[in-house]
């Protein structure tokens, strides 16, 4: 496994990061002990980097996986929608308590959209930097589906506040980029990286759209000198082995190639959806609409993040 440092920070990680949402209840619906085993297996194979969020409500799962693994070298990145100081204090304390860690490696603002939204989260950001100064957080960052948010991070740096890390959506098809093309995203991300900001990309497989061309999709991201690491959702030991093999040799084993060519993921909306529209408001991709009293998804726009399922009062949405 290749290891790297995120930008100018002191955080060293495996280039392959295991996203923890994919094994969490809103997506895989694996029993918690099984989900923890999958994460622990990745850690034991040298994947020393995992990504979570306050919104995912899966800190206990990661804690369980760390207890199974037993090592202490796993870097955890989390993120929060907090925008006030009080909310940020609560978010940091929740992470420290539930992950059983005094120090959180990476703490980010979740789903930033622009310089304006970053400014709107100023209080929370200031608190995260205070925690960094006290040694409670090692790196401060932001995640985003918008090119304008990366531009906003660059503008913040120009004004003297340089984030340590960004976590942008990044894939060769441009799937899920909310306000531009992959060329726009590449330009912004490379300029951010030039400022010493570490980059770990998400949705490199386009939320499933690029499974059939996974080699090309990974190559696209791995070949960029400004992409330090890549977060990938993985649901089984076989998938972990296949991705590790790819990161190490740039080749998938034959069995993995066959599995990937058949692999599909989709958003399933149950017939008992009542068309309340809560999921439509939650989807930043504009992939959902209510048609004739029932939610409907445009799979060309959906990146299978699963965020909509969290807000459905009837639990009518699942990522399968
Ligand atoms: S939130 Fe649930 S019930 Fe409401 S429209 Fe969406 S799927 Fe249907
Ligand atoms: S429809 Fe749901 S899973 Fe798809 S992008 Fe929107 S919020 Fe994410």
Would you give an account of this structure?
The chain is α/β, with parallel strands linked by helices. It folds into two domains: 3-262, NADP-dependent oxidoreductase domain (TIM Barrel, Alpha-Beta Barrel); 267-319, Alpha-Beta Plaits. The chain is built from twelve helices and 14 strands. Helix 2 (59-69) links the parallel strand 4 (49-51) and strand 5 (75-80). The radius of gyration is 18 Å and the shape is globular. The chain binds iron/sulfur cluster (SF4) (2 copies). The site of one iron/sulfur cluster has 14 residues, from helix 12. Residues 269, 273-279, 290, 295, 312, 314, 316-317 line the site of one iron/sulfur cluster (SF4).
Total strand count, please? Answer: 14
- Put simply, the count of helices is 12
Architecture of the largest domain in CATH? Alpha-Beta Barrel
In the CATH scheme, the class of the largest domain would be Alpha Beta
Bound molecules: iron/sulfur cluster
Short description:
By secondary structure, this protein is α/β, with parallel strands linked by helices. The protein has two domains: 3-262, TIM Barrel; 267-319, 2-Layer Sandwich (Alpha-Beta Plaits), CATH 3.30.70.
Sum up the structure in keywords:
alpha/beta; eight-stranded parallel β-barrel; Alpha-Beta Plaits; globular; TIM Barrel; 320 residues; binds iron/sulfur cluster
């Amino acid at each position: 496994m290749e290891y790297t440092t995120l930008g100018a920070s002191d955080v060293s990680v495996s280039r392959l990061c295991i996203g923890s949402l994919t094994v969490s209840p809103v997506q895989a619906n694996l029993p918690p002990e099984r989900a923890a085993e999958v994460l622990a297996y990745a850690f034991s194979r040298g994947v020393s980097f995992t990504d979570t969020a306050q919104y995912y409500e899966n800190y206990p799962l990661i804690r369980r996986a760390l207890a199974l693994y037993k090592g202490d070298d796993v870097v955890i990145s989390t993120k929060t929608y907090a925008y006030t100081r009080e909310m940020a204090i609560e978010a940091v304390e929740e992470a420290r308590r539930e992950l059983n860690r005094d120090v959180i490696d990476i703490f980010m603002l979740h789903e930033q959209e622009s310089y304006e939204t970053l400014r709107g989260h100023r209080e929370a950001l200031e608190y995260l930097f205070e925690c960094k100064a006290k040694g409670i957080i090692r790196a401060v960052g932001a995640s985003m589906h918008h090119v304008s948010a990366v531009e906003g991070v660059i503008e913040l740096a120009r004004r003297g506040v340089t984030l340590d890390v960004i976590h942008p959506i990044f894939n060769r098809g441009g799937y899920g980029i909310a306000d531009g093309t992959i060329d726009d995203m590449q330009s912004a991300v490379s300029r951010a990286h030039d400022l010493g900001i570490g980059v770990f990309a998400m949705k490199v497989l386009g939320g499933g759209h690029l499974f059939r061309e996974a080699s090309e999709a990974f190559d696209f991201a791995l070949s960029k000198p400004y992409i330090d690491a890549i977060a990938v959702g993985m649901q089984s030991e076989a998938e972990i082995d296949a991705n590790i093999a790819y990161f190490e040799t740039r080749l998938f084993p034959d069995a993995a190639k066959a599995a990937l060519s058949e692999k599909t993921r989709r958003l399933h909306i149950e017939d008992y959806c009542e068309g309340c529209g809560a999921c439509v408001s939650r989807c930043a991709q504009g992939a959902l609409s209510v048609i004739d009293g029932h939610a409907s998804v445009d799979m060309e726009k959906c990146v299978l993040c699963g965020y909509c399922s969290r807000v459905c009062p009837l639990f009518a949405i699942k990522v399968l």
